[in-house]
Amino acid sequence: MLSTKSESDITSLAPSSPSRSPKRPVYYVQSPSRDSHDGDKSSSMQPSPMESPSHPSFGRHSRNSSASRFSGIFRSSSGRKGGGRKRNDNKEWNDKGWPECNVIMEEGNYDDEDKAFTRRFQALIALLSFVFLFSVFCLIIWGASRPYKAEIIVKSLAVSNFYVGEGTDSSGVLTKLLTVNGSLRMSVYNPATIFGIHVSSTPINLVYSEIPVATGQLKKYYQPRKSRRTVSVIVEGNKVPLYGAGSSLEVSQTGVVVPLKLKFEIKSRGNVVGKLVRTKHRRQISCPLVIDSSSSKPIKFKKNICTYN
């Protein structure tokens, strides 16, 4: 743009000089660029050796116009560069005139975070899958172990002491008293092939007209798989008052016959998979019997005389 102005200035002066002197060669002054150094600026401002002293107006005009243009460029350039570096907002400016900004570096790597999240999610899925499969496995084992119930068979009751007589209770009321001591034998079989069972019972009662006259308790024990065991339980009752229920009992010289009922419940528990999978069964047993004071033989229970519920 500056070169265009120089050409226009020179061409405007050229037509006025043909009458005074012959045509002279025209020269051009090249304006320095904005990125030129101060040394180049000073060298460009030196007068050309082709200037003629006979044309002072032409040389002075050209020098003045060029100097004014150069100084204007220097002022504007230096004003932008020098003034741009000092601002009221206290920002630092680089050599290219751009403000320098503080770059905030974020810590961490998003790829690593995504990988960590994916691993945690996969671990959670694996854990849930394991719990589900293990639960299904335990359910199948539990269902397969349900049919294996302990088999109970009541064999005999040996009575060692039996007495019926009249007397008074702890409060002094006159009534009939009954004493029974004996040993109950029964067989327990565990048909399970993969686990043992823990066997226990509720109180084993000999009942006369809904009154317990003798009581015993089976001690808890462990029975291995596919095994059979015969257990004995002591039942005893000492001078149990019968009150109104004893009015039907007749004591003779030959002895007395007393109808009783044996009632109890057998409980079995099998730990199939530790304490996580267990099987529990209950078997209520009821056996009627008659005790004759004149007989000392053990009372044997026939196979179908007892009920097992």
Automatic annotation (TrEMBL):
It comes from the Eukaryota. InterPro entries: NHL41-like. Residues 1-14 have a biased composition (Polar residues). Keywords: Membrane, Transmembrane, Transmembrane helix. The chain crosses the membrane at residues 123-144. Residues 42-57, 65-79 have a biased composition (Low complexity). Residues 1-93 are annotated as: Disordered. This is Late embryogenesis abundant protein LEA-2 subgroup domain-containing protein. It comes from Dovyalis caffra.
